[in-house]
TrEMBL record:
Organism expressing this protein natively: Pocillopora meandrina
GO molecular function: proton-transporting ATP synthase activity, rotational mechanism
UniProt protein name: ATP synthase subunit b
Family: Belongs to the eukaryotic ATPase B chain family.
UniProt entry tagged with the keyword Cell membrane: no
Subunit structure: F-type ATPases have 2 components, CF(1) - the catalytic core - and CF(0) - the membrane proton channel. CF(1) and CF(0) have multiple subunits.
Compartments (UniProt record): Mitochondrion; Mitochondrion inner membrane
GO CC annotation terms, alphabetical: mitochondrial inner membrane; proton-transporting ATP synthase complex
Signal sequence interval, chain numbering: none
Amino acid sequence: MISRLRLATRIGGAARLLAHAKPSLPATTRLMCQVPAQQTEDKPQEFGQFYRDISSLLKEKTGETGHKLLAGGFLTYILSKEILILHDETLLAVVMFGTMYWVYLKVSQPVADFLDSYSQGILARFNGYKEKRIEMLTSTIEEASQVEYLHSARTDIVEIMRENNAMSLELKYRNRLHEVAREVTKRLDYQAEIEAFHQRNAQAHIVDWVEKEVVKSISPQLEKESVSQCIRDLKAMAPA
């Protein structure tokens, strides 16, 4: 009990010294004026951000050493009131906390980098899926616009198909006329050949009949006179 009273007396003296060491209002104001304005950036919440926010708030209100004095006064208070008793378990807790904090400092950055890379990979996959989805929707919109254009050109397409059908019918009609004309020409040529054949046969028959009649009409005396006349003509034609 006496040791506790001595410890409380020492702690109380330290608290009074800390109270006397508190900076005055002008000094605090001067320190606050000397603190450079910090630029606020939108960063993700990190471990210990709440403590840093409280510390920055205390720095703005009390100066650079205000939060340290507050922590020292609070520690002195809990020690003087025996809220926190220094014994083996307390030292073990401090050592464990220090060890855990050291492990946190060593492991937090690699783990954070790994988690960042993993989250970036997930984000990249989602972005790839989003881009593919956008491309698919864009192609769908283009196809829909093409279908709409075809729908608007439906009248022209129907008119073109009607004209094509009319041209096909006209071509078939002309082909049939050509076939008919060709068949008629063949029949007329055949008829002309038959007529020419009959005429040639008739002419040959008439020529044969005339030759036969002429041969029959020639007598031996007439033949002899004809031969004699031919000889005289040849002699007359010969040079003297």
